[in-house]
Structure formats: structure tokens, C-alpha cells
Design brief:
The protein is built from 8 helices and 7 strands. The protein has about 260 residues and is α/β, with parallel strands linked by helices. The structure holds nicotinamide-adenine-dinucleotide.
Length: about 260
């Protein structure tokens, strides 16, 4: 019997990515573009210029790109952004729920405002973006949703009370949507990165004790980089992952393996 080799590419597909500023969102946008996708790079309205930069970098790779304002906490903003992407490209094949906030505080100091913001962006935002895009995917009978969770959605860590709860919520939301939407041809998976060096957390890398602790805690022996996440996301979006759904792929250098 001839072996059929499924593609590991996403040629001609359309990917919408939330929180597409200079961090992980940008790397995932460029990674998906490099693998053949056209990109809708979205950001909060006040930070749209950052998505414009990402879109320009995507075009330099030879793919089409649209920068679109999308605040994941605002249902009307989600509706308008999804409609704009649908109008520009005619469909959305891949949704990457990447927008997130992380307020690091001892549990005794977390305020209701900290808790609500963290959950509104990370968990509620992931759900309602998935719902809005999932409806379009279901109508076409095809879709790939990839949530950016965290290793702290799988294990606990001090100072991450609100964050880890929201990421743990994303982990089980991923499984639940995967089960519910499988018959529509939609797969729903998540990646769980370890500490990944980006602009927003550069201040942590200036603390030798932090870097030393993390590097010793990660069996691979180094901090993560945004580009470490590209392979996992492209794979989960590609035809090669057609039977993979409801899974959490830790890209954590082994943090959660012990
Ligand atoms: N960097 C890490 O160490 C790390 C580790 C594990 C998981 N993550 C996750 O990866 C994702 C990206 O993080 P990052 O490290 O690139 O940080 P980042 O702060 O650079 O990126 C997050 C982006 O989300 C956007 N955002 C915030 N609120 C939003 C809203 N209401 N609507 C739309 N966008 C909004 C921000 O503008 C920002 O560009 C997050 O979900 C984060 O929790 C990061």
C-alpha cells in the first residue's frame, strides 16, 4: 500500500493571530507565513502600529497580510475584526489565541482588578475569539484553533495565582472545544511554553538569580525563545496534525517533565 505523506506546511491558508505585537505573536505570524499562510495580525487598538510592523514583515516574506484592531475583551471588537478578516481573505483557516497578560504577585496581594483583567484577556478572550471564528470554521467544515497556554497551565508556581488559573482554564477549555467541535472538522490544541524571552519580560533577564534558577529548572539548560514555538504551531495547523485534537503540547525544555 502506498504511503501518503501529509504536508507539514500551511500553503494558502489564512491565519488570524491575536496579540500580534513584538513578542511571541510576531514570531508565530512570521513562522506561519514562512510555512505558506497569509496572515491577519491583530492587536489592541492602542497598539495597532505593532501589528502593522508584523504585517509588513509578513509581506517581506512574500505572503499577504492584514493588520487589524482586535481587543479580545470586547465582543464587538472581536465581531468587527473577524468580519474584516473574512471580508479581506474570504475565510479563516487558523486561529492562534495568543493575546495574554501576566500579573506576577503573591496571592495575598492579587486584587479583584488583577484577577478580572487576567481572566478577561487570557481565558474569556480565548473563548469568545474561538466562538466567533469557530462559527465560520464550522460552516466551512474545517479549522485549526491553537491556544497559547503556558507551562503554568499544567503546573503551579509562586506568584502566578491569577495567571496560572487562567492558563489552566485554557488547558481544559482546549480539551472541551476539541471534543465539541471535532465533528465540524475543527481541531483545538494548545501549546504550553516555558519562560520565553521577549521584549515585555526583558527586565527578568536582568536578574541573575532569576535566570540562574530558570536555567537550572529547565532540563534543556536555557530559556525559551519565540522561534522555539514556531514548529509546534505550524505542525498543529498543518495537515500532518489532522488527527491531533484536545492536546497540550508543552514547549518547555522539559520543565513539566519532572
Ligand atoms: N513570554 C513567556 O515567557 C510566556 C510563557 C508562556 C506563555 N506565554 C504566553 O504567550 C502569549 C504571548 O506572550 P508574550 O510573551 O509574547 O507577551 P507580550 O506581552 O509581548 O504579548 C502579549 C500581547 O497581547 C496583547 N494583548 C494584551 N491585552 C490584549 C487584549 N485585551 N486584546 C488583544 N491583545 C491584547 C498585548 O498588546 C501584547 O502584544 C501570552 O498568552 C502569554 O501568556 C508567554
Amino acid at each position: 500500500m502506498a504511503v501518503v505523506f501529509p504536508s507539514m506546511r500551511v500553503d494558502g491558508q489564512v491565519a488570524l493571530i491575536t496579540g500580534c505585537g513584538p513578542g511571541i505573536g510576531r514570531a508565530l505570524a512570521l513562522g506561519l507565513a514562512h510555512a505558506g499562510a497569509d496572515i491577519a495580525a491583530s492587536e489592541m487598538p492602542s497598539r495597532l502600529a505593532l501589528a502593522e510592523e508584523t504585517a509588513a514583515d509578513v509581506r517581506a516574506l512574500g505572503r499577504q497580510a492584514l493588520a487589524v484592531a482586535l481587543d479580545v475583551t470586547d465582543l464587538e471588537s472581536i465581531r468587527q475584526a473577524v468580519a474584516a478578516v473574512q471580508e479581506r481573505f474570504g475565510r479563516i483557516d487558523i486561529l492562534v489565541n495568543n493575546a495574554g497578560v501576566n500579573i506576577v504577585k503573591p496571592a495575598f496581594d492579587i486584587t479583584p482588578e488583577d484577577w478580572d483583567l487576567t481572566h478577561n484577556v487570557n481565558l474569556r478572550g480565548t473563548f469568545f475569539c474561538s466562538q466567533a471564528v469557530g462559527r465560520l470554521m464550522a460552516a466551512r467544515g474545517h479549522g485549526r484553533i491553537i491556544n497559547v497556554a503556558s507551562q503554568f497551565g499544567l503546573v503551579g508556581f509562586e506568584g502566578r495565582g491569577a495567571y496560572a488559573a487562567s492558563k489552566g482554564g485554557i488547558v481544559n477549555l482546549t480539551r472541551t472545544l476539541a471534543v465539541e467541535w471535532a465533528t465540524y472538522g475543527i481541531t483545538v490544541n494548545a501549546i504550553a511554553p516555558t519562560y520565553t524571552a521577549t521584549v515585555h519580560n526583558a527586565h527578568l533577564r536582568e536578574q541573575p538569580a532569576f535566570v540562574d534558577y530558570y536555567v537550572r529548572r529547565i532540563p534543556r539548560g536555557r530559556l525559551g525563545l519565540p522561534e522555539d514555538l514556531i514548529g509546534a504551531v505550524v505542525y498543529l495547523a498543518s495537515p500532518s496534525a489532522a488527527m491531533v485534537t484536545g492536546q497540550i503540547l508543552a514547549v518547555d525544555g522539559g520543565w513539566t517533565a519532572w
